[in-house]
Design brief:
With 451 residues, this protein is an alpha+beta fold. Helix content is 11%, strand content 26%.
Amino acid sequence: MNKHLLTLWFFVAAVSPGAEPNCGQSLVDGSTPPSTVSYIYPRQTVQPFYQWENNDGYCGEVSMMQAGLNNGQWMSQFNARLICGTGLSQSGPNGACAAHHNQVNYNAQLLIEDPGTGVSGPNTYAAAALCLSNSRLAATTFSYTGESTGTTGYQQYMSWVKQQVIAGHQVTMALLSNGGTDPQYDHEVSVIRIGTNHSPTDPTYYPDDVVYFDDHGVYTLSGEKFTNNPAIPPGAGSDSTGCTPYVYGYTFESLPQTRAGANRKGAQGYSIIIPGDGTIYTSTGGDGYSTVPIAGPHNYGFSVAGPEDPTSVTLPVALTIVGPTETGGLWNPLDPIAGYDYENPIIGTSLLGKSCTNTPPAEWMTNVVLQATVSGLVPGVSYNLYEYELPSVQGVGSAAALPVPVRNFNANRRLATYDTPFTAVAASFEQTITTTSDKIIVFRCVPASAP
């Protein structure tokens, strides 16, 4: 969800290798981010993931996918959009691309705000709460309807972000970009860590706190100029024509902006809207192509605590793509920062993210090697690791939910595709599978004594 993202300025944090000399990641708009005494991390490490840019971008879908990977789940960006249950396919109903001059249906993108809360039009759209619930992830969204306006409201939002990271949750924030057009947010990013000079258990807003996030590779460089988001990340493998920064960091006090302020000449690459109560115009819940008036703007975000498991019997499971994938018999190269966390082929026909399409990719990645790592085990205790392999997403609304149990996992073992009983000999256990990118793979691990 990039809302026609056009960007002229950027900044980078965290040093990583890149193919070009300009790809060094040590500058934040001309200066290094201030050092802090300590860092606050989510429970699982957030690995950058490169998003598709076609259909106006998949940033919300990738943010949810990252949370899924860190909770034992894999699904393509294609399925991550369908899991929202809008029935809008990838960019609207069939024929919409041609009828609207290749303008995608904005309501098909994973957006954060909830329908019926005064911040959208009347039409169906992909709302994060339902997308996450259908993905069988336990999540909450920021309570934007009760937030204050002005800088006080912004500080409430950042305090919520910090509180969620302290709790170990994976947080997605909504940002403005320099050159963007939406009155509330242009882009959705995944929080990697928060630097602080205060107690790492204190959720209080402090101006000198620093938030670091993954922007999913939307800002790409070729020389010293921004370029379109290509199919394979610039700098991957033998590609030396560009680089992808991915990781960005800002102090809390540097982020609040108005829409006009975010776009001013020389402004930093990303900022966060200062909430208000005026009349603005949003595409969310409109007819998919034009705007509707609402009161705002507001801040938005969602936080994933883990798999949906109200009885709290599941063990943490993280998935990692551990080797090169193949597309059409050719190996996909390693990205210097994201590794193999990107999808090739792209969706659509444009190598530079210009497509509007309702059809799946022409082919899927093969040789996708996923390593499932279960942690928090007690040596000597017996466990069951369940793998659910699903071919696709079907249905509208909550009917699109993954057919994966959320309780009584052992009693429902027949629903699993594979069942691996084991007795822990250490605090962690690993299992590797090979699959294709069109499949949906979900792992759940529970004690053998659980219901």
